[in-house]
Amino acid sequence: MRALLDTSPCAVGIVGPGGRVLYTNRRHDELYGVSADQIPKNVRDLYVDPTARDRLLEIFRRDGRLIDAEVHNRRPDGGTFWSLLSWSQAEYDGQPCMISWLYDITPRKQAEAAMEEARRAAERANQTKSEFLANMSHELRTPLNAIIGYSEILVEDAQDRGDEASIGDLKKIQSAGKHLLGLINDILDLSKIEAGRMDVYLEYVFLSRLVDEVKTIVEPMMSKNNNRLIVECPPDIGSLRTDLTKLKQSLINLLGNAAKFTKEGEVKLSLSRSVDEEGVSQIRFAVSDSGIGMTEEQMGRLFQAFTQADSSTTRNFGGTGLGLTITKHFCTMLGGDITVASEPGKGSTFTIRLPDKTVRPEGAGEAEPEERPVAAAARSAHALTVLVVDDDPTVHDVLSATLLREGYNVLHASDGDEAIEIMRKTPPDVVTLDVMMPNVDGWSVLGIMKSDPMLQHIPVIMLTIVDDRNLGFSLGASEFMTKPIDRARLIALIQRFARTHSGAVVLIVDDDEDVRMIVRQAVEGVGMTAAEAFNGEKALEWLKTNPHPALILLDLMMPEVDGFQFLARMHEDASLRDIPVVVLTAKTLEDDERVFLAERTILVLSKSTQPIGSLGHALAAIAARAHGHGSEQAAQG
Amino acid sequence: MPKILLVEDNEMNRDMLSRRLTRNGFDIAIAVDGSQGVEMATTEKPDLILMDMSLPVMNGWEATQKVKADPATSGIPVIALTAHAMNDDRDKAIAAGCDDFDTKPVDLPRLLQKIKALLEAKGAG
Q1: Which of A311, A402, A495, A562 is the most exposed place for a label (fewest CB within 10 A)?
Q2: Which of A152, A181, A374 lies nearest to residue B95, judging by beta carbons?
Q3: Bond prior to A438 in cis (omega within 30° of 0)
Q4: Chain B partners of A141 at a C-beta cutoff of 8 Å?
Q5: How far apart are CA A42 and CA A32, in angstroms?
Q6: Which chain A residues touch B95 with a CB distance below 8 Å?
């Protein structure tokens, strides 16, 4: 048995009770440089980290064995080696003991360490290179700015003097400078990407506007080779949460390339929305040209840095060959991809596909997908998040500019469905809701919100252009106004409808005592007399027993006989039909549920007037209510 | 003539931008660091401030915050000038209270548009 164990490549040691080493085989003696009787009493000293043995023993006691632990061992002479260690239980000479099996893995460990060190060194070198490039690019740009700037000034001077001869030359300096700047920027971008320092900034991008902007930028490139730019962008293409700068740069890149490799032809940019295999909505940006095209082989090299289709390409067409590499990196960072289809002589089509969902982009350290970094930067412990729901991009622009500046975090949704989705994922503190939206309108969103326990507490500010006047008018109302009541407007209305009846009576029909009081003050303030009715029933009774009032101010939601019924009954009675009625309401909804919801609407603002100022006040009020500190926050704005 | 306070430490940039803005009908005041910029926002009462972000003594973000925190100057629109594609600079600028930003090297027609828009908005408000 011992003879057999002495041939084993595995070191074997048998430890008896009290930690006494009873036996070691030949390999064990070789590995430790000592025989069994020379092994120190304290076996913990045989470990580089003595506590490692305690941990291993714990496992051994728990499991009854230990399998393949990687251990850094120490020899009695102080040398070290790595082993793969197993322990098992056995009986030896009639006593229970522990057998330890060690396999020397020092060479493997050394190789691994060398590889790791080499990898770190390579990373350090690459990092140094990238930093060098980034710094260098900055240093290069500074004098370049001067070249471009002063040549522009000289062009302007020459234009003033009518010095046509100089203008041409100066413009060449200027355009060469701009070209060089573009190349430097490309190198900077690529070095940032490689250094992992290129961050993704997700924001709300309105595609039709992006396309317009890109079109303006690339038009001059198109006219250079007499190319025609065709843009196909469906009017309902909508928006995409992505990094605007990177997407724009990618499109300009592709369009610039198309323009460069096409002469007197057509370059087409077409956008479309589709659904991918996993059911995710995606936007495709296809840039196709009728240019020189590429072979399969050329396409294979296309996205590699510093290569172009052919080395002669650089001579004929210029460029660093970095554009497509950068574009490809950008597309990947944005969660999408870029593909190419081409045939020599028939032109090429580059297609960028980006998912329309909030994706966690590659690389660490980016802002949470649901928030703009601006918002993150501005975020304080008390900052409120406002979800802007509107189908009009301008509203998003205006509101986010204002709100971000005032330290609010802003989320965006272009329609009701998106709004609900965002709210469920990231409940905002306040929602501004557009009433008129395609598909799911503002009232429906409000309905969904108020029936969802998770969302019903979120205050909503309705933004509307139409006051649902038509509803009021069709019910026979003379005017329509929304709550809470704008005093000035109310007074103006009263004066308009009741002016001719100075000293006459205005009937206020509302179940809310506070509203009646406010309205009464307004009525009396213009020198008229106010009468009050609690609901439609009471108002009809009042009308029967009193002379006709000059005006009726009517709430729609009242117990028993509500405003609608009241109007209907008034309409049946020819004698009452001519009394002007102004509807005062917070509601524009037909069914009870919606009525209930609309009552909870904090404020209805008219978008046609100034939304920003009034919104600021509304938000300050909400902030003060929602958070103890909110008022300071809002006061800063 | 609308007065613009240009806060820029780089002499060439300052020279170029001030000459071109003067040519376009603006009265130019110049500050060479953030601290001077804040001071001159009060003394010069400019209609608009063009603020470089990487400035000595006090950087542009801090200077903007100071300008926006003082009721006497908070109404003055500030356009941040940041280096190319430095998104974080841009975001920091807006967080600091800048009304708009543009990248350097300056594209003059674009910058003029932004200046015009802010001056009009200020005039209207």
Answers
A1: A311
A2: A374
A3: no
A4: 83-84, 105
A5: 14
A6: 374, 377-378, 404
A480 close to A582: Cβ distance less than 8 angstroms: yes
Q: What is residue A295's three-state secondary structure?
A: coil
A484 preceded by a cis bond (ω within 30 of 0): yes
The pLDDT of residue A616 is 44
If you search the block for the tokens 């252009």, which residue do you land on? A465
- Is B91's CB within 8 Å of A189's CB? no
Pairing of strands B78-82, B48-52: parallel
Q: Tell me which residue of A536, A446, A551, A537 sits closest to A492, measured CA to CA.
A: A551
For A281, the token pair is 């909505």
Q: Would you say the ipTM is above 0.90?
A: no
Q: Which residue of A135, A153, A199 is the best one to mutate when testing the B interface, meaning the one whose CB has the most B CBs within 10 A? A: A153
| Stretch 72-101 of chain B: residues touching chain A, C-beta under 8 Å | 83-85, 87-88, 91-92, 94-95, 97, 99
- With contact defined as beta carbons under 8 Å apart, do A461 and A431 qualify? yes
Mean pLDDT by 10 residues, chain B (125 residues): 92 90 93 93 94 86 88 89 63 76 81 87 64
Residue B119: other Cβ atoms inside 10 A: 16
Give the DSSP letter of residue A44. Answer: G
pLDDT value of position B39: 93
Query: Would you say residue A333 has pLDDT above 50?
Result: yes
Q: A142 contacts in B (CB within 8 Å)?
A: 10
Which residue in A146, A188, A199 is closest to B87 by CB distance?
A199
The angle subtended at Cα A332 by Cα A327 and Cα A338, nearest 5°, is 55
B97 contacts A150? CB cut-off 8 A: no
Would you call B12 and A152 a contact, using CB atoms and an 8 Å cutoff? no
Distance from CA of A609 to the nearest CA of B (A): 13
- Cβ neighbours of residue A441 closer than 8 Å, sequence gap 6 or more: A416, A435
Q: What is the Cα–Cα distance from A318 to B49, expressed in whole angstroms?
A: 40
Structure confidence at residue A284 (pLDDT): 94
Q: In which element (H, E) is residue A43 found? A: none
Among candidates A399, A409, A345, which has minimal Cα distance to A371? Answer: A409
**Residues facing residue A434 across a β-bridge:** A463
- Interface test mutation site (partner B, options A138, A142, A199, max chain B beta carbons within 10 A): A142
List CB contacts of A433: < 8 A, sequence separation 6 or more: A389, A419, A442, A445, A446, A460, A461, A462, A463
Residue A442 sits at the vertex; the CA angle it makes with A418 and A438, to the nearest 5 degrees, is 70
| pLDDT tens sequence across A522-556 | 777 767 788 899 888 889 888 888 888 877 877 76
Nearest to A156 among B13, B23, B95 (CB): B23
Write out A104-134 in H/E/C secondary structure. Answer: ECHHHHHHHHHHHHHHHHHHHHHHHHHHHHH
Sheet architecture: strand order including A479-482? A479-482, A581-585, A551-555, A505-509, A529-533
Residue A68: φ, ψ to 5°: 50, 55
CA A134 to chain centre: 27
pTM: 0.45
Cα end-to-end span (Å), chain A: 88
Q: Percentage of chain A with pLDDT > 70? A: 72
Q: Which residues pair with A584 in a beta bridge?
A: A481, A555
